[in-house]
Amino acid sequence: MIVVSIPAAEPEVTARSPEKAHTVFLVEVLCNGRRHTVAKRYSEFQALHKRIKKSCKVPDFPPRRVPNWVPKVLEQRRQGLELYIQGVLCHNEELPQDVLDFLKVRRCQQELKDRSPAVSHPPSQQPVLGFHSDPYTRPPAMDALPNAVLSGVLQGLYAPWHCPSCTAVPRGQLDS
């Protein structure tokens, strides 16, 4: 499965020709647990659209608007391109090689074809802690051994009043 998002659009200016600045869209691609980022221009998205629109289902392509350096326009274009590429991935079971090349994905689609849906893979993580039964809902066990901690606490709190073998010492006699 391929998951794509476009989290940012950045202006890019080359040192050789600063007058030919353009916007680069950072495309994050998640495929089989691996994430990578691809920088693409609007014209590259447009060229991809022209190549694949006859061979697969594609949503409407977001139009080019002028002026393209206004932050609001850039954000709208970023959102439009993100919806477009997500729509291409969502509406097509088999992706054309052009889309995989555009996203710089190699084996992701092939691994999905090779994997049988009936095969169940065990989870890659093990539970840290588990209980066989809830200790608080279990009936108390009838053990032969007394609960030493409970007995000690009860004796410490209530011994002078409930324990006939214990004798209470008056306050004044403790210091002597």
UniProtKB/TrEMBL annotation:
Membrane topology: Peripheral membrane protein
Entry's Gene Ontology cellular component terms: cytoplasmic vesicle membrane
Entry keywords, A to Z: Cytoplasmic vesicle, Lipid-binding, Membrane, Protein transport, Transport
Primary location recorded for the protein, binned into one broad class: membrane
GO BP annotations listed: protein transport
GO molecular function terms listed in the Swiss-Prot or TrEMBL record: phosphatidylinositol binding
UniProt subcellular location: Cytoplasmic vesicle membrane
Family: Belongs to the sorting nexin family.
Name of the protein in question: Sorting nexin 22
